[in-house]
Structure formats: structure tokens, C-alpha cells
Amino acid sequence: MAAATSQRVKVIRSAVLVGLIALIAGGVFSLATSASAETHVVEIRGFEFFPAEVNAAVGDTIVWINKDVVPHTATAGDGAWDSGLMETDDEFSLTIEADTSAGDYVCTFHPNMVGAISVE
Amino acid sequence: MFRKIFLSCAAGLLAVLGASSASAEDGGLNDMQIAHIAYTADEIDIQYAKLALECSDNADVRAFAETMIRDHTAVNVAALALLKKLGASPEDNPTSQSLLASAAAKRTELKALKGVAFDRAYAANELSYHQFVNKTVESTFIPAAQNAEFKQFLRTALVTFKTHEGHAEKLVKKLGK
Ligand SMILES: [Cu+2]
Known about the structure:
The structure holds two protein chains of two kinds. Chain A is built from one helix and eight strands. By secondary structure, chain A is an alpha/beta fold. Chain A has two domains: 1-36; 39-119, Immunoglobulin-like (Sandwich), CATH 2.60.40.420. In chain A, the strands form two sheets. A four-stranded mixed β-sheet of chain A has the order 2-1-4-6, with no helix packed on it. In chain A, strands 3-8-7-5 form a four-stranded mixed β-sheet, with no helix packed on it. In chain A, a hairpin with a 2-residue loop joins strand 1 (39-45) and strand 2 (48-50). The longest helix of chain A has 34 residues, at 2-35. Chain A is globular and about 35 Å long. The model of chain A is unreliable at 1-13 and 15-33 (pLDDT under 50). Chain B has helices spanning 2-22, 31-55, 59-85, 94-111, 115-144, 148-175. The model of chain B is unreliable at 1-27 (pLDDT under 50). Chain A binds chain B through residues 46-47, 68-71, 88, 109-112, and chain B through 67, 70-71, 74-75, 78, 156-157, 159-160, 163, 166-167, 170. Copper (II) ion binds at residues 72, 107, 109-110, 113 of chain A.
């Protein structure tokens, strides 16, 4: 009985400890990511995304700029995010969160235009 | 029918090009004539697309037609801006006239079709029309263009039209025979 109680206390203590560590680590981690958050620029020109693939970390921002004469979009494969119609020199920003839809994305006007985002 | 129109377009164009190469010393097609033909070719595709929006219920066909209107309009707005900057204006010519006449005949032919028959004929025409225009722009207009900025503009426009050609090819396949 006494042993069982002490066992439970230990379990609770270690749960609290793990929680604390997670909190601290999380705090440090989010500080670290916000301090080093990067902006990745993707130019749209000649009906292509440059670069075609972006490796981003949570907290980073991707900015698309349309350098073509014709309008384009940058749209998640599952439609979770969408720039909408971008005229020449229009920009669209996307901040990467843990649940941001990554993988292939397209221009909805020109289905041959495909880019990709991988989240580290 | 398409072949006939294609050939008559090509013949019209070749007649003009032939005439101009016969008078090569005179410089052949000048930039203002090329600009007029390119502008006319854009307008023709916009008209085909407007017809598709009137006649088709197919979502893929409608999306394609909307992209044709959006892109060819943007290219023509940019073309006019460049010509204005260069202090030039497009010059009407027999090739433009011939293209317009062929396109009017093609629209009449398309209007007589319904449903999937219209969709397939529209898509097939878009593919052949873009192939024809692209070949002309690439092998004739770009080499002939004198003004460097105008030449570069034609190269940019060609990228647009080639993308459309690829898109049309997929549409034709998707609609089947
Ligand atoms: Cu696009």
C-alpha cells in the first residue's frame, strides 16, 4: 500500500518533471525558431516557381512574387492555403506553422506549374 | 475542316511571308505588322474562349477558357504598353485579315456543335491554333523582329502560348475522342 502510494507519487512527480522540461524546452525552442526564422522568396517567372522546392522550418515565411505578365496563383495541393489571383509584382506570404499543408502546390490557372514545400 | 482552316491560315501567312521574302531588301514584315498579327492572334483566342463560356458546361473547358481570356488579355495589355513606350502603333496587314476570316469561319463551325462535341472541337482547335501560332512566332516573328525590346516581348509571349499548348494537349486527352 505504502509502496503503491510512493510509486504513484513518483509517477506524478516524473510527469510534472517531463511537463516542465517540455515547457522549458518548448520555450527555448520557440525562442530559437523566432530568432532564426527565415524568409524564403519564390519568384514566379516564365510559368515556373523559382526555386521549385523550398525547405522551411516552422516559423519561417515563404513569399511568392509574380514576375510574369500574366496572373498566377500559389495554392496548396489540398486547397488549405491559396494566394488567390496574383497580378504582375503582387506578393503572397505564408508563415509556416506545424500544421501548414506542405508537399506539392500548384498554380490553379496553369496546372503544369508545380512547386513543393518541405517542412523540416 | 480544321485542317482546311489550318492550311488556309498557313497559306495566308506564307503568302505574306513569301511576298515579303521576295522583297527581302525591303525588310519583310516590319515590327508593327508583326505586332498587329500577334495582337490579332490573341484577340482571336479570346473570342474562341468567350464562345466556349457561352456554349460549354464542362468545368475543365470553362477553366481553360477563363485562363485563355485572362492570359491573352494580360499579354495584349502588356503589348500595347510596350508599343506606347516605343511610340509605335500596330499596322494592319493581309495576314491579320486572313487570320480573322479563318477564325470567323471556325467560330461558325463550333457554334453549330453541342455538348461534348463542342468541347472536343473547341479543345482540338485550341491545340492546333496554339501549335500554329507558336510555330509562326518562334520561327518567323522572333527572328524577324528588329527592336530588341519587342523581340524579348515576343519571347516572353511565346512562353505563355507554349504553356497553353501543353494545357490544351491535356484537355484534348481528357475529353477523349
Ligand atoms: Cu500560373
